[in-house]
Amino acid sequence: GIKAGAMAIFEEKYAEKVRMVTIGNFSKELCGGIHVYKTGEIGLFKIISETSIAAGMRRIEAVTGEFALQYIQETEGVLDEILISLNASRSDIIQHLEKMKDSLKSAEKEIKILRQKLAALRFKKKPDNVINLQGIKVLAEKIEGLNINELRELADNQKQKLGSGIVVLGSVINNKVILIATVTKDLTDRISADEIIKKIAPVVGGGGGGRLDFAQAGGSKTDKLDEALKESKAFVKKILSSSA
């Protein structure tokens, strides 16, 4: 069979005599299990998945005959439910979905801006939230209602507002503590964001790190967030005192 040009899959075990299946001039295969005598018996053939199972080898899964018809009918039913839900026709469903996607992106952008404004408003309402340690401005605060990217942006924005200083923000996102530390570049020779994070991350049962001017950590002990922020102030004061 192989001499005749048939393909063999080497993981398969073949007996001394093996049936070779030929499909016209298109394919020759060593039989790994065949259930029809003619391809016409298969009828409707619908591929439902195609995946990689090894280097250079892929698995194709399909349904045939009545099962293929049932699969298509079920798919049609799901599509009809989607069309009813969207109040759309088949001809304009893609356009309809594109409009929904654009609308969702716009809403998400607006929500992000509003969340950031609310977070920034909190700082304006608390003029005493920036403390002075060894002549350096330090902000260490717990923030609620932002996702991790927004928390990073807020930390960077607050650092820029300080001009020269240190910002440490903490939040609970998806039942996990997130800590972010930023240090203006003029102070990184005295204290780094990386060492601040590595000091306080264990308090919340986590770890992390980063650069001299930016670092981040995650932890599981959500009830220890306030303690971690308090520890950040004590650590910053200690390091600045020793480097003064």
Explain how this protein is built.
Helix 4 crosses helix 5. This protein is α+β, with helices and mostly antiparallel strands. It has five helices and ten strands. Strand 9 and strand 10 form a beta hairpin. The chain has helices at 65-86, 93-125, 148-162, 193-200, 225-243, and strands at residues 20-23, 27-30, 45-54, 57-64, 130-133, 136-142, 165-173, 176-183, 207-210, 214-219. The chain is elongated, with a radius of gyration of 31 Å. The N and C termini lie far apart (84 Å). The strands form three sheets. A six-stranded mixed sheet has the order 5-6-7-8-10-9, with helices on both faces. A two-stranded antiparallel ribbon has the order 1-2. It has a two-stranded antiparallel ribbon with strand order 3-4.
